[in-house]
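[job 0417] fold request received: Cell division protein FtsX
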Amino acid sequence: MRAQFVLSEIGVGLRRNLTMTFAVVVSVALSLALFGGSLLMSDQVNTMKGYWYDKVNVSIFLCNKSDAESDPNCAKGAVTDDQKKQIKADLDKMDVVQTVTYESQDQAYKHYKEQFGDSPLASSLTPDQMQESYRIKLKDPQKYQVIATAFNGRDGVQSVQDQKGILDNLFKLLNGMNWAARAVMALMLVVALMLIVNTVRVSAFSRRRETGIMRLVGASGFYIQAPFIMEAAVAGLIGGTLACGFLLIARYFLIDHGLALADQLTLINFIGWDAVLTKLPLILATSLLMPALAAFFALRKYLKV
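[job 0417] inference complete; emitting structure tokens
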């Protein structure tokens, strides 16, 4: 097969169906941009999980005098020194515990004033109303239930709280948004495939005389199909290249410059350029193979070769 013939046929086909080719390019670009975006969103959520789960603490809040009067968990009175020593000793014996930090009422009051000093409630609080607590760093954040089972309901313990539960709600929201993006991506891919099939069929129909002559002179099925398949592949590759450009531009303007989220949201550990660059070959490969395969299967039935 002469490469010059195939290339000339590709150019002819793309020019004849310029409007539909443009639609294919745009739909492929948008769908693959969403595809790459959903992959990067998954990486971002996993990065944030690893970053924040490593920092979460389990807190054992101890009963104070105010709790003894109002909280059923503290019906036996405020925590005693012996109870605090026993709790600390039991925590030190547990294999799941990495570090234990004690926070006194004065320290809790100081931290509260630093975080909520502007709150109307802050002016009415006194240090003796705050709770003493043990802040526990676990070797595995998933082992929270071990601490809860061991200390919930113990004398002197008001409650056991896991910060991971708060983060889980955030990550559920992010995962929900990611799945929504994937649903839109799947819809766009279906639209792109339909456009590719229709474009190839229109192109084949407009050149039915040429393909008929080629069939009469004994041209092989692949020789006849190759220009149409490569037309679809070229259009898809252009769309894939645009999708890669969208992702690079989005990463540059949203995180590094423009909105500069990396500077404004310093508590979030954003994914780096390496995560974006590793997705580009997959997007380009998909943009090349998806239209080519769609055109191949469409032509087998349409041209009957």
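[job 0417] notes: The chain has a mean pLDDT of 80. Residues 3-52+169-303 form one domain.
[job 0417] exit 0
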